[in-house]
Amino acid sequence: xxxxxxxxxxxxxxxxxxxxxxxxxxxxxxxxxxxxxxxxxxxxxxxxxxxxxxxxxxxxxxxxxxxxxxxxxxxxxxxxxxxxxxxxxxxxxxxxxxxxxxxxxxxxxxxxxxxxxxxxxxxxxxxxxxxxxxxxxxxxxxxxxxxxxxxxxxxxxxxxxxxxxxxxxxxxxxxxxxxxxxxxxxxxxxxxxxxxxxxxxxxxxxxxxxxxxxxxxxxxxxxxxxxxxxxxxxxxxxxxxxxxxxxxxxxxxxxxxxxxxxxxxxxxxxxxxxxxxxxxxxxxxxxxxxxxxxxxxxxxxxxxxxxxxxxxxxxxxxxxxxxxxxxxxxxxxxxxxxxxxxxxxxxxxxxxxxxxxxxxxxxxxxxxxxxxxxxxxxxxxxxxxxxxxxxxxxxxxxxxxxxx
Length: 404
Description:
By secondary structure, this protein is an alpha/beta fold. 41% of the residues lie in helices and 14% in strands. It has 17 helices and twelve strands. It has helices at 18-28, 57-62, 76-89, 104-108, 130-136, 156-179, 189-199, 202-209, 243-253, 256-266, 274-279, 281-293, 297-307, 317-321, 324-328, 372-380, 384-392, and strands at 9-13, 32-38, 67-71, 91-94, 115-120, 183-188, 224-229, 235-240, 310-313, 333-334, 347-348, 396-397. The chain has a seven-stranded mixed beta sheet, with helices on both faces. It has a three-stranded antiparallel beta sheet with strand order 7-8-9. A two-stranded antiparallel ribbon has the order 10-11. Helix 1 links the parallel strand 1 and strand 2. Helix 9 packs across helix 13 (297-307). 31% of the residues are buried.
């Protein structure tokens, strides 16, 4: 956690992954992020994985360091209260529909410099999820080796959309600081997916070749990289993406003579050309595979490390969580936050390391409605009696205590 965005406040009305990630990244950099949910929790409040006590560990970690205001959206007074709050703060992140009660056009009528980021499915307003966007952009049919598509389990497009949304929000904030002008930013999940595919050269590649790539399993396209199995049954990934890494790999495995024989037999040179090596990967992989299959992992890993070869063993998530380098001794993680679930575990803070800046521990997620009173007091200047009336009328929610 850092304080680079201290003094910035935004309202977040969102659910699931992409939109909450925008607010999470802002909160981790010190902004005040007011997460507004239905009293009792929104549609993602019970999203798996969950504890036996019924707390969502997904929700808990996507909403760290945020403040919580609970409202009953079914009540017109609650919707009016939310609109007032957004106009007061001047920044909104949401994944609610374009034309709903939180439309930018409607809110900006009384706050011309309003900035809003709206995460969408398709540009025309159609619904899309990470899983359907992934199916649409072609990568699942390249994954694996069999005839059927293979989806990745990590919601990559959700996370990229959240990161890009945070970037776009900072850009819009900078423009408002310079010009006083507001912005409506519509960010469709499918555009993030399609644009990312294009940035990786895939659109140009298909149009240039007129066909799709072959499926490569765990091999890396265009270079030497693949998974291999050691003598003691450990599967590792080895990648050599440039000349120096290739030379180190050849030396570490002692396959120089074999590689020279392949070059001679095929009339090619692997020196200085990643593409040629990739084209003849069948013979290269066979040589690497034989050497690795003859060695136990720990011995092999020590030799590869000494040579500066890029490699890692495949780990289960249990292995990862217990890996000191990734989690246990990593300053990215900290413990001791007052998690709503009551479960104490390493929690991630801001991903970036800023030398010279104080890195504070990860903050807890809020309880539903935990900051209702403070938000309404600080941003709308409501009196205690007015807040009490709203609570008693069921418009505003408070945690555990029905009175402010």
